Each structure stands twice: as structure tokens, then as C-alpha cells.
Amino acid sequence: MTKDVLLSIRGLQFAAQEEEEIEPVEMITAGDYYKKNGKHYILYDEVMEGFDGNTRNIIKLTEDSLDITKKGVSNVHMVFEKNKKNVSYYNTPFGSLLIGIDAKSVDIAETEDDIDVKVKYNLEVNYEHLADCSIRMHIKSKEARDFTLS
What we know:
By secondary structure, this protein is mainly β. It has one domain (about 5-140): Beta Barrel (Lipocalin), CATH 2.40.128.20. Helix content is about 0%, strand content about 70%. It has a ten-stranded antiparallel sheet with strand order 6-5-4-3-2-1-10-9-8-7, with no helix packed on it. Strand 4 and strand 5 (about 65-70) form a beta hairpin. The two termini are about 20 Å apart. The model has no long low-confidence stretch (mean pLDDT about 90).
């Protein structure tokens, strides 16, 4: 994997009250990659419309966990570990939310030029179940010819 990467993140929520699926949200951006002490790190900046400044995102991947830290306009430290509930405050320009992340599965597949991440989790806000969610990430070297989220 090279230092310069392309990152695709797709999120999907299933509302707790309805069985109707909400449209997925997908973002594709450039980022920086490095590996240290057996852990993968991906760093990228995110801009929120209507706000000055940006949010620095740090993704840390281990064999069986996903760790996302956001610093800037929004601030949060989210940890996704299979069969473990993690609680954190999500600080936004509109106020703080107490979120709970109960990961049901964390699957990480790595090849020489890319990393695929699939996470399924339950999301709580203020100790109330909000939605069943999934995250799909695809990290690929910028030099790679094909960039698709399979």
C-alpha cells in the first residue's frame, strides 16, 4: 500500500421504527496511509457545509477492530469491536450526543494494494436504540487502476 490512497466510505441505516431502508451515504476522498506496530492508519480531512474549518479524521484498523477519531468542527472517538458496546460523546456544532456503538461484526480484508472493511452495528443515542447500521470502507493505493466498492 502506498502513502497516498483513495478512500470510499459508505454508510447505511435501518430505522428502528420502520423496516424501510434509508438511502446509503457515500463519500470518496483522498487520504494518507501508513502502517505502524501492525496497525493501519488512514488520515483525511472532511469539510462540513456552512461551517468554517474542517474535521480531521483518523481511522485505525487492527485485525478485529475499527477506531475512528474526528477532531475539528465535530469531535468524537468511536470504537467498533465485535460483541462489545462502546460509549462516547459526539460533539457537533449543534450540541453533544451520547452515542453507543454495539458492533455485531467487524470484517477486515487486506491485500497488497487495498483494504476492505465491513462493519455492522447497533447505534444508540442517549441509551435509546436508534438504528441498525453498517459501514463499508474501501482503501486503495492511488496508483491502482480500478477503484470500485464491490
